[in-house]
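User: New here, any thoughts?
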Amino acid sequence: MAQSRLFAVLLMLALHLSFAQVVIAEELPASYSLGKQYLDQGRFEEAYTELHKAFLMEPGHPDLNFQLGRAAFETGRFEEAVMAYERVLMADPEASRVKLELARAYLQLGTREVAKQYFKEVLATNPPEQVWKNIETFLASIDASEQKHFVNGTFTLGHAWDDNARSAPASSLISTNFGDFLLNGQSATPQSDQINAATLVLNHIYKNEEYPFMWKTAATSYNALYQSLHDLDVNYLGLTTGPVFQKDSYIWDVQALGTYIDVEHDRYQNSFGAASSLTYFFSKNIMGTFAIKAEEKNNYVDAGRDALNLLVTAGPVLLVGPNRLSLLFSKEKENADNETYSYDRFGWKLRYDRSLPYDFAIFAGLGYTISDYDAPQLPLFSVCRNDEVQELTAGVSRLLWQDTARNQALILQLAHTYTNSDSNIDLYTYRKNVTELNLTVSF
């Protein structure tokens, strides 16, 4: 008899609970069902509106809060999504699906430590393989976002053919204040040579979300060794460091800089200074660049060439599909201790790049500069030097190999540049052709 009474009590309790659930389900407003329907159709804004109406009438219902959280997440209301999911967990603290959605919401809010904790709690329940893989991807992205030190760079090996390595004048007969002279020696006539070059660029970026900027340091090493004209061998070292401010619409950096140059393994020049550049994105297809640099030069060979150099550049960049068109204007002023070497220079460069099938790309460029020097080179020349230099460049490149996951690539490039320099002083009028073959690895 006692067992019969106990069974009856349990049966009545089960019926009562079932009936209570049915009543609750029936008591949910029509906007709940409509909201779920919109949610399944991907009409997230409408789903949020209907589910929020239902929430105001039944704020404590777990399933309603879960669906409201989904709609809030899909419409970018991440804080509301968190609150909705937290209300569900109050009713069912072990709900793995809710913890997974809650972790995604916290991740969108930038609260990565809380998101990681919820992801790990879901992993501990041994979820299905696809869920497990998705969580691992989320955790990997969190670890990457918390990384503070980034190192990348490029290394280029090049071989060039130069038909006028010393920029010898077009004519060996030079007009001076003392009459016409016939040049002799190494620079009298054009000499061709081949050059082997190596360029290494290393970048280090320190990123801390507590700071409104990143800190970037870049080191550059360039070495050019001539096959025959060894007195033209050049070694260059450059270092820049400073903050970088980056937003959706612009990138702005401010840097201190230093350089060192030697020629034929002898000290030639060093410099130090400061620079700043701004890249502004007007739209996805148009951006503009502006840069300014001030540099104090110290020349070891000729003290008269010690100078303060100021350089300003600016120009637009247009991106249309596989096409890129850029125009860069430059204005340069160099004040040297000897006015003979002081000059004002203006120039522009126009370049077109296009991506082609099979990882090929082509490019072409046209450049022009005009330089006016402040004082004549007495006693040989009584006029102030004026140079006009035109450059025409064209080339092709091909991506040989790429690992996008590791940001690595191998690129082969072939380019030719023709230079035409006209000067009011015959000594500086010359023609030059340079063909370069470069192999670059980025890492």
The first strand starts at residue 149 and ends at 162. Residues 108 and 116 are 12 Å apart (CA to CA).
